[in-house]
Fold this sequence. Notes:
- By secondary structure, this protein is mostly helical.
- The chain is built from 28 helices and two strands.
- Helix 12 runs antiparallel to helix 14 (312-332) and helix 20 packs antiparallel against helix 21 (476-490).
- Residues 603-662 form a coiled coil.
Amino acid sequence: MRVTQTLWRQHIGWTFKQHWKVQRHRVPVATGADLVLSQMNIPVVPAEDIVAPSPMRKELKFVGLEDRPLPWDECHPLYHKQECHMYGNHSVLLKGLDQAKVLTNTVELEQGLPAALPRVTASARHHHLVNNLVLDAEQKKLPKLKDPERPAFNFPRVYGITDIRGTRFEWLTYYRIFVGYCWHSSSEDEHLKSVTDNEVCSLLNLGTCGLHVVHGSLRTGVESVDWDISSLLRHMYYLFTDSPARRALFTQLTGCTTFPLKFCGVRWLENAKCFQRALQIWDHVIKFLKEAKLPKTKPVETLKRAACDPFLKCKLAFCKTIADECQPFLQRFQTSKPMTPYLFEAVEKLLRYLMNRCVKPDLMKCTGPKLLSIDTKKSENLILSKNIDIGFATKRLLGETAITVTERQKLEFIHECRSMLTTMIAKLQEKSPLKQKAVRGLSSLDPCVIQHSPQLAQKRFSFLLEELNHANIINDVLAENAKKEYLHFCNLKKSELQEIFRPCDQFSDEVGLDTIYGSFLIGEANYKHLWEVIKICLVLSHGNATVEGGFSVNKSLLVENMHEKTVIAQRHIHDEIQEAGGIKNIHISKKMLDYVRGARKRYHEYLEMKKQEKSEKDKKKAEKRKLDIQVKDLEGERKKLMMATEEKREAIDVELQELKKKQASLY
């Protein structure tokens, strides 16, 4: 071990103190000599009896008037086999529960965790972390130190504990604390050794959340062209919102009772309905802008500029076409069920759909990750602009503009559509989960791949086992056994596989893969290793599905002018109804009915409380305003006094100078 300053700092004084601290608690080792001596009929006497013998005390018997008290044993006349407590009419518990506990010799159990538990666990954490991360004697060369403010400064190398060793010790520390306070297992050491035999388990990289990638790709594509769709949709919505008079005027002039929907700038794939509504009422909006006398506001000016664009409806239709194509992916993966086995095929399918619109067919024969190598920024990989698939609705609307626009303008619009597609595809390729080998391996658990391409499934399962083994999540023996069992599973008869995967519908969320695989593999000795691997794979997250689903649920619940408490309460009610399985499955208890009866009273109490809070706040504001006026007046008076004093001082200085001049002239 290399002797460094860090090592000396750790061991000066502390090692010797720790050594003698341990030595003083040592217990003499039993040598078995007393047993040998007893077999030889040699008496063995403890050393304490010879060195400090205990004095023998004689029992003194006093003769008195009272008898000796009887011992409290089975011969006592008041002895009962069954414990009982006797109370008379005079036995009143003046001290309450505390006196009752003393009389009955009982204790009161505390509710919840012991009060000393947080202190004990904090002390244990501190003790373990200090021993593992501060007092560990490992001396290895650590990474070079860098200072952002002094990038050229060369710091001396530091020796100490590596990050891997520190992380491993920290994980073991918290595991032992958890096991020590929760349960004790005889196989704890074996389990720790099996998990951390070589190194700490590495993280399995599945790439960026696919839901956010698809969201961001469409937004990036629309922003790459100079269409300004988001500004148009926002201003169209805010032109009519919170304005009943303008809505009535719009209905009177156009005869249309439909109004724009709210546009969300960060959730593009949920705006397909917004695109459709804008297409539906755009002609009425143009008529309204021409006939109505509107103020020169920013929304009005934006809509008037957009009305001069002959391709606006075509742009809205193209955005809606792309959003509709991406929508199934978003809806399918907004679930908490295990969906990682479907991620590879779903992303590949979406990417292929988009690339088929603008990439040459010869390049689309490749599969899987090879799609990521196609550079859509190169024009030689793309089809001609006039052959771009822009969708049926866009083509129809583009044909209707033939009178007002030229062919060159049409080609420029189609070229912009191609530019939007290529930007969106490039964003998907950059952040795509298809890059990750683990995602491709997880697709081996897809029922469609197992049933229709068993050889491909076996190849991908080998990739999965390889990734899990490299990450130190499974050992070599488990990987080999799981591979054999998966091969046997894929070689089952086609009818048996169809029966196993019959309840599986990859486009629904009713039956998950955990239920399907668990119903067949749990309890099967021939597939126990395979089930261990599948359990690890099915807990992997396919993205922020909970967050995305929460956005969608909140969007369907929200209405205008809702306070934060109302939103939270309504979301709680929605989640409770979903948990119960519907409104009809909720049990209406007496407590619930009583609570509903008192709702009106609580509402008035809440209003009264808010009114009181508002009055107190207004009172504080009035008092603060009064104090501000007083402070301002005093500051004005102080300023006036200072100015008057300054003028008087200047006058005195002038008079003093004149007197000094006269005084000097007399000499």
